[in-house]
């Protein structure tokens, strides 16, 4: 019987399979518990043929749906037994051979990858993101902070790490819809150049800079980071990149950090904010999410990034690891997406909505129970540029850090 396959996978918790004839089957025991409803028994064969890809695709097609606890309960059960879900050695070898091709993001391929995700539908992003349209991990300084406040806290924290002075020239690589660039210009009186490859992001950011009276200090360009030559004065005082490094691809890591160093002035500093992996590098491609959400992307381990920084001669002046902040951010995004799901279904279709909720909840689960974190890599051309303690980052906060509670995953806005 095909369900014996699940017997070998589930050592912790319980999977309840609901069949079309109203029969149910329990696999495992105890918590966590998750429910899966099958459209017909043949769905099992599809799921077992390639679990890594088929579970997401079959969910998009409506071949199965979750029961009590929803998708998040299924992801929790998966991560409770993740060590049992190893893919076949043959598939691992094949993916390893192809990974260089998939991540070899030429300028043309990089533009195509960006359009695949970021130019889907402006209203989609506007509805589930915060008012500033920040599409990266927020920074929840307190338990009662809502998404809007947490995204502003992220901008404030990053600005401090850049050690900005009025009149500084700043480069924002992967500027998105312009929120961070405009924040830096407004609050720190700096001049910012923002780079994006997205048509929608570029048009929106330019229009917003004009509307907010900041066009004289913020300039946006549709340009690949590898094509950017710098300022007329020869370099930038600070370079920031938030949520873009995940799209660079391993073959381009050294090119990226070499470009950061080249574009920085001798007393320049940089902050790279990227999703990272707390465990070792992986050999396989990301499967479902790489195919449907972020083609050409890769989440790095620290051991894959550090050697490239070392080769530039820049100083890694600070490394901060954000844990759980992205799980809470994604929880907020998921709830907002569901609030507008009916409108999205009418315009984009039911299959798209299933794909998007599988993406948001799957990522939330991986940050909550898996090995994904956020790296804050602070770099400096010279070792003395950045303060030698972290006091400058936290001196204005009202209270000391404390432990995160489990219920703080709940979205408050």
UniProtKB/TrEMBL annotation:
Cross-referenced Pfam families: CMAS (PF02353), DUF7884 (PF25371)
InterPro entries associated with the record: CFA/CMAS, CMAS, DUF7884, SAM-dependent_MTases_sf
Domain DUF7884: 14-85
Keyword terms, alphabetized: Lipid metabolism, Methyltransferase, S-adenosyl-L-methionine, Transferase
Coiled coil residues, start to end: none
Stored CDD domains: AdoMet_MTases
SUPFAM superfamilies the record matches: S-adenosyl-L-methionine-dependent methyltransferases (SSF53335)
PANTHER family, sorted: CYCLOPROPANE-FATTY-ACYL-PHOSPHOLIPID SYNTHASE (PTHR43667)
Protein family according to the UniProt entry: Belongs to the CFA/CMAS family.
Name by which UniProt lists this protein: Cyclopropane-fatty-acyl-phospholipid synthase
């Amino acid at each position: 019987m095909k369900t014996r396959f699940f017997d070998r996978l589930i050592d912790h918790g319980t999977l309840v399979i609901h069949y079309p004839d109203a029969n149910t089957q329990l696999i495992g025991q105890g918590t966590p518990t998750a429910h899966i409803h099958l459209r017909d028994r043949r769905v099992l064969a599809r799921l077992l043929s390639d679990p890594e890809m088929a579970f997401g695709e079959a969910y998009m097609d409506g071949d199965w749906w979750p029961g009590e606890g929803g998708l998040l309960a299924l992801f929790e059960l998966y991560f409770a037994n993740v060590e049992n879900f190893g893919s076949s050695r043959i598939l691992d070898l094949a993916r390893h051979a192809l990974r260089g091709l998939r991540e070899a993001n030429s300028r043309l391929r990089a533009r195509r990858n960006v359009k695949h995700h970021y130019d889907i539908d402006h209203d989609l992003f506007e509805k589930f993101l915060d008012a500033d349209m920040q599409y990266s991990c927020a920074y929840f300084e307190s338990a009662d902070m809502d998404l809007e406040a947490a995204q502003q806290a992220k901008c404030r924290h990053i600005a401090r790490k850049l050690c900005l002075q009025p009149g500084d020239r700043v480069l924002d690589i992967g500027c998105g819809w312009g929120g961070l660039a405009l924040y830096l210009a407004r609050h720190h009186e700096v001049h910012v150049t923002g780079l994006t490859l997205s048509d929608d992001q570029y048009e929106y950011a330019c229009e917003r800079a004009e509307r907010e009276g900041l066009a004289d200090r913020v300039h946006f360009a549709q340009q690949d980071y590898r094509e950017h030559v710098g300022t007329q004065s020869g370099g930038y005082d600070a370079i920031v990149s938030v949520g873009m490094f995940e799209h660079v691809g391993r073959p381009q890591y050294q090119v990226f950090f070499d470009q950061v160093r080249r574009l920085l002035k001798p007393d320049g500093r940089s902050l790279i904010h990227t999703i990272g992996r707390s465990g070792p590098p992986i050999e396989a491609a990301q499967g479902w999410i790489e195919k449907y959400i972020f083609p050409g992307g890769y989440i790095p381990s620290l051991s894959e990034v550090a050697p490239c920084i070392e080769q530039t001669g820049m100083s890694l002046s600070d490394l901060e690891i954000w844990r759980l902040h992205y799980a809470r951010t994604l929880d907020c995004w998921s709830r907002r997406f569901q609030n507008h799901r009916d409108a999205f279904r009418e315009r984009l279709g039911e299959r798209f909505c299933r794909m998007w909720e599988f993406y948001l909840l799957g990522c939330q689960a991986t940050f909550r129970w898996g090995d994904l974190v956020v790296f804050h890599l602070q770099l400096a051309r010279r070792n003395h540029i950045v303060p030698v303690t972290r006091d400058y980052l936290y001196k204005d906060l009202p209270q000391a850090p404390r432990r995160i509670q489990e219920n703080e995953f709940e979205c408050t806005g």
